[in-house]
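Progress against Task 2.4 (sequence-to-structure conversion) is shown through the following example record, which the project officer requested during the mid-term review.
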Amino acid sequence: MSTPDISELPATYADVVAASTRLAGHAHRTPVLTSRTVDARTGARVFFKCENFQRMGAFKFRGAFNALAQLPEEARKRGVLTYSSGNHAQAVALAGKELGIRVTVVMPQDAPKVKVEATRGYGAELVLYDKHAASREELAARIASERGGVAVIPPFDHPHVVAGQGTSAKELIEEAGALDYLFVPCGGGGLLSGCALAAAELAPGCRVVGIEPAAGDDATRSFRTRTLQRCHNPETIADGARTHSLGRVTFPLVLALVNDMATVDDSELLRAMLYLWERMKIMVEPTGALGAAGLFERGYPVAGKRVGVLISGGNVDFAAIAPLL
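C-alpha cells generated for the chain above:
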C-alpha cells in the first residue's frame, strides 16, 4: 500500500477540534503529570497524559461519546451495538447511558472481570462469546442485522472514534507545549491515529511513536511492510491491545502520520507498569503502560528532549495481575 494523500485521509484535525467541543462538559480534561525521577532516568522532560483518570478509567470514553453523540435520532432510538474486550465496552455503555441510547456489547468470555462488571453496571446488555470459536465482528454484524440494523460502533476503526481519541493529545500539547516525541499505546490504532492528527497540527516537529505488545505486533509489521498484517488472538497481558489488525480507517492514518512503531514484551511492560505504580503513585493497567515501556526500554534518543507519553487506562484486573507480580 502506498503512502496515502493527507488530503484524502478518513479523519482530520478539524474533526478532532469538533470532537473537543462535543466532549466539553462530558469527558474529563485529564491531568498531565511529571516526575523528576522519570526525567532523571531518561534525561528528558517527560509529560504523562493520564487517561487512567478519564471517565470509566480510559481514553475510550472520548471516542465512544463523540461517535454516539453524532448519531441521528432514528439510530439512537434503535440502540447501538459494539464489540470489545473491555475498555471500549465500558465507554460505549457509559456514553449510551448519558445520551439515553440502549447499548449491546459483544465481549469475550475471558474478558477481565472488572471490565465485564463495569460494562454491565453502566446498563449495557452483554453477549459473551468464545473468542477461539467465533469472530466478534461477524457475531456483532449478525446480531445487528437481526435487530433491524442497529448502528455498530467499532472499538477503533471509525473516523468519529479516532477524532474523539485525538482530543487527548490535543489537550496534552496545549498544556505541555510543543513536544519532540510522543509515545502512544497501539492496539487497533484509534488512539495512535487520533494523537498523530493532533501532533501533526500542534507540534509538527514531533516524532510520534506507536508502541504495541510483542505478541501482537501486527501494527508494527504493517508499518514496516506498508501492507496490512494480522495477528489472531495474541496472548499478552495487554488485553486492551489484543486486536487482530489495524483497520481501513486507522491504517492509512498510521502510514501517513506516525514516525515509528516498536514493540515491548510482557516482562518489559510489567516493569513499566510497576514503575509507574511505585514512583508516580498512579494506577495504570498493562495496556496503559505501553507508551511508557517504549520510552524506557527502546533506547530512543530522547535526552534533552520534551517527551509526551499517553497513559491510556487504569482498569487493572488484579486477579489476573497478582500471580505475575
